[in-house]
Design brief:
Transferase(Phosphotransferase), domain 1; Kinase-like_dom_sf; three-stranded antiparallel beta sheet; 269 residues; Ser/Thr_Kinases-Pseudokinases; protein serine/threonine kinase activity; kinase; globular
């Protein structure tokens, strides 16, 4: 019997100090592979976030739960249902949810896996945050993030859905990165930085943003990406906690993580 009692957000809170890049990339690979199975069935999830990515303690694999068609039936025509930081900007601006909207959510999840905290943790989930997302605001990439992983994140959360990879391309790329890290054991030798203060902040504040809800924002502009100048100005004044360099966070890991979760689809041969 599968034991699935822990979601990704809880798993990261409990294990952030002990996760290597090897393990984090494997988590991203699990999630992307699970989404590829869903998209192969011509189904859009519509509500991907770290609260419905569940961990199977027995197999040590993450699965996707709560398919989007299980959401509320009474969403207003001018409303959007979801967990705001993970909702694609084109959906916030009133367009239909597509397969590429799920890919945007994957980009946010990949960032969350790399940082150990939910995206926009210090922002209220309101009109102001929605407008910032539409205008190109994204979380700051964690220093020390592997270049190919960083590239995938930025492709996934591009404001233009046509520039995001499809699930097949994304699955192939993360599989290649995961394979490379499992062939290289050097990642296991990195030092650990104590980030207990960060974890305390996450455990308190992330409770506010753990759930999806109906958002009604009215008319919104067309989504766009930040310019380089806007990105530099935003990051220099960012109010979120200072993210430690991941080269020092993701140190030696014991692979016997004491975690749990719930199955939808995930079985990479």
């Amino acid at each position: 019997m599968n034991r699935m009692k822990m979601n990704l957000r809880e798993y990261l809170q409990q294990n952030c100090n002990n996760l290597t890049w090897k393990r984090r990339i494997k988590i991203a690979d699990d999630i992307i592979f699970a989404l590829s199975n869903i998209h192969e069935e011509k189904v859009i999830h519509r509500d991907l976030h770290s609260g419905n990515i569940l961990f199977d303690e027995n197999s040590q694999i993450f699965y996707i739960s709560d398919l989007g068609f299980c959401g509320p039936a009474d969403v207003p025509l001018d409303g959007t249902y979801g967990n705001l930081p993970y909702i694609a900007p084109e959906v916030l601006s009133g367009k239909e949810t597509t397969f590429k909207s799920d890919i945007y959510s994957i980009g946010m999840l990949m960032w969350e896996i790399s940082s150990g905290q939910p995206p926009f943790i210090n922002f209220d989930h309101d009109f102001d945050l929605a407008l910032k997302i539409i205008n190109g605001m994204r979380p700051k990439i964690v220093p020390g993030t592997p270049p190919k992983y960083k590239e995938l994140i930025e492709q996934c959360w591009d404001a233009d859905p046509s520039k995001r990879p499809d699930i097949s391309h994304l699955d192939n790329k993360i599989f290649e990165i995961n394979k490379l890290y499992h062939q290289n054991n050097n990642d296991e030798q990195l030092d650990v930085l104590n980030i207990s203060d960060v974890n305390i902040s996450i455990s308190v504040n992330s409770l506010i943003s753990s759930f999806s809800k109906i958002h009604i924002f009215g008319e919104m502009p067309e989504p766009r990406n930040f310019t380089e100048e806007e990105r530099e100005a935003y990051y220099s004044n960012q109010q979120d906690f200072v993210i430690p360099d991941s080269r020092y966070i993701f140190g030696h890991q014991t692979e016997n993580n004491d975690s749990t979760g719930k199955n939808v689809k995930n079985l990479r041969k």
